[in-house]
Design brief:
The protein is an alpha+beta fold. The protein has three domains: 8-95, no CATH class; 129-236, Beta Barrel (Butyryl-CoA Dehydrogenase, subunit A, domain 2); 261-392, Butyryl-CoA Dehydrogenase, subunit A, domain 3 (Up-down Bundle), CATH 1.20.140.10. The chain has eleven helices and eight strands. The strands form two sheets. Strands 1-4-5-8 form a four-stranded mixed sheet, covered by helices on one side. It has a four-stranded antiparallel sheet with strand order 2-3-7-6, with no helix packed on it. Strand 6 and strand 7 form a beta hairpin. Helix 7 (264-276) packs antiparallel against helix 8, helix 8 (286-314) packs antiparallel against helix 9 (322-345) and helix 9 runs antiparallel to helix 10 (359-374). The chain starts with 7 loop residues before the first helix and ends in an 8-residue tail after the last helix. 37% of the residues are buried. It binds flavin-adenine dinucleotide. Flavin-adenine dinucleotide is lined by residues 130-134, 139-140, 164-166, 373, 376-377, 379-380, 382-383, 386. Flavin-adenine dinucleotide binds at residues 130-134, 139-140, 164-166, 373, 376-377, 379-380, 382-383, 386.
Length: 400
């Protein structure tokens, strides 16, 4: 690899040389990769080999400063790295909420000690993180959260409950919003805390879904002691940091979706041809033709907006309300794409497990079902519309 590497060709050569054979062409989706943490297991040891080879070049956290184990790539070089991975269908060496959510937040708001403690462990994939925001009474209305933290000496003592905590049962640490006081506005008195999930008083209960899998958990805190050194920012002033992290989360969801939404028009046309029994020419179903064309135009526009946002980010800006645009449009576009695939498949889309269907048909139905959650996680579409109405268009809040 040339020094400093910057082009797709540079990174393609590195991947050719360093990515184990079994990982080339293997990438399934945006979240496929080495999730790490103390509990992570995989039948393929090459995930560790790939992680180790990238680590020595700082490529597990390509844009992070070298001081924490990153490669300090600029925006263009990072885009080239991503493109080379996509071209080779190789998973990124490390993935997870550490890299995409809490890491960027600590880079901006963490103390020197917090950065030194947590960032290198994320870069190596040693510690897996989960997100403790939602509570039974606080989802969209996140600032209504009630998990209490009371100061006792040099600790905060946390009692309460989180819900929908993705992969808490596989994680080592949680970033959690707690209430330390009540002010005039509910956004006041919230503190942003980093907590070791092995602390006494933490109980994690996986929630079993209708699919049989349990990606979500409830997390209970019973007088959990967290050192004050794990408070990010100031006590009572965590709301701004919580919102900044949501910006990173929404950008991550939008970017992951963008990778899945490139050039799908041809794929949709090919599936439609096969379903309609047509080998060539214009699709005979005029409505379907119209809807695929409409989807394809939206896809092009979406990527244009992403490029514009990327350009802004290259100048060093952290994601603001534009993260809501990416999240809103990306998730709805993805749902539109799967709606079309389901429509084209007709009754072949009715199965979601068992025999009688091709594996690819079952995959499509499951992906369609999963895409419904995209417009809920990380803040619902309605909430993104509210943010855009108020913070971009300057419209008044309903009821104010
Ligand atoms: C796949 C997935 C993964 C998740 N992972 C995590 C995680 O790891 N950690 C975590 O903390 N949370 C997680 N969540 C929870 C997620 O953040 C919440 O589900 C989401 O914020 C919505 O909150 P709620 O479910 O309480 O719905 P509610 O807030 O009760 O909303 C119900 C409906 O009312 C609408 N609504 C609510 N308020 C308004 C308003 N002011 N204006 C207009 N419409 C409104 C909503 O859009 C929605 O349609 C996850 C959710 C999903 C689906």
């Amino acid at each position: 690899m040339s020094n400093p590497p910057s082009s797709v060709a540079d990174f393609a050569a590195f991947i050719e040389q360093c990515a184990p054979e079994s990982l080339r062409g293997s990438r399934q989706g945006a979240f496929d990769g080495f999730w790490g943490g103390r509990q992570w297991t995989h039948e393929n040891p090459d995930y560790w080999v790939w992680r180790d080879r990238c680590l020595t070049h700082g490529l597990t956290a390509p844009t992070w400063p070298k001081a924490y184990g990153g490669a300090a790539l600029d925006g263009d070089a990072y885009a080239a790295w991503e493109q080379a991975l996509v071209d080779a269908k190789v998973p990124p060496p490390v993935v997870g909420f550490g890299l995409t959510m809490i890491g960027p937040t600590l880079l901006h708001y963490g103390t020197k000690e917090q950065k030194q403690q947590h960032l290198p462990a994320i870069v190596r994939g040693d510690i897996r993180w989960c997100q403790g925001y939602s509570e039974p009474g606080a989802g969209s209305d996140l600032a209504s959260l009630n998990t209490q933290a009371v100061r006792d000496g040099d600790s905060l003592v946390v009692t309460g409950q989180k819900v929908w905590t993705s992969y808490a049962h596989l994680s080592d640490w949680i970033f959690v919003l707690v209430r330390t006081s009540r002010g005039e506005r509910k956004q006041q008195g919230i503190t942003f805390l980093l907590m070791d999930l092995s602390s006494p008083g933490v109980e994690i209960r996986p929630i079993e879904l209708i699919s049989g899998s349990s990606p979500f958990c409830e997390v209970f805190f019973d007088q959990v002691r967290v050192p004050l050194s794990q408070v990010v920012g100031a006590i009572d002033e965590g709301w701004g940091i919580a919102k900044a992290l949501l910006g990173f989360e929404r950008s991550m969801i939008g970017a992951a979706i963008a990778g899945q939404l490139k050039g799908l028009e041809q794929l949709l046309v090919a599936s439609a041809r096969s379903a309609l029994g047509q080998s060539e020419g214009r699709l005979s179903d005029a409505l379907l033709r119209h809807d695929i064309a409409s989807y394809a135009m939206d896809e092009v526009c979406y990527h244009e907006v992403l490029n514009r946002i990327d350009d802004a980010r290259r100048t060093g800006r952290t994601p603001g309300p534009e993260a809501s645009v990416i999240k809103l449009v990306g998730t709805e576009l993805k749902q539109k794409r799967f709606d079309l695939e389901m429509r084209i498949a007709g009754q072949r889309s009715l199965g979601w497990e068992g025999s009688g269907f091709e594996p690819s048909e079952l995959d499509t139905t499951r992906a369609w079902l999963r895409s419904r959650a995209n417009s809920i996680e990380g803040g619902t579409s309605e909430i993104q519309l509210n943010i855009l109405a108020q913070r971009v268009l300057g419209l008044p809040k309903i009821g104010s």
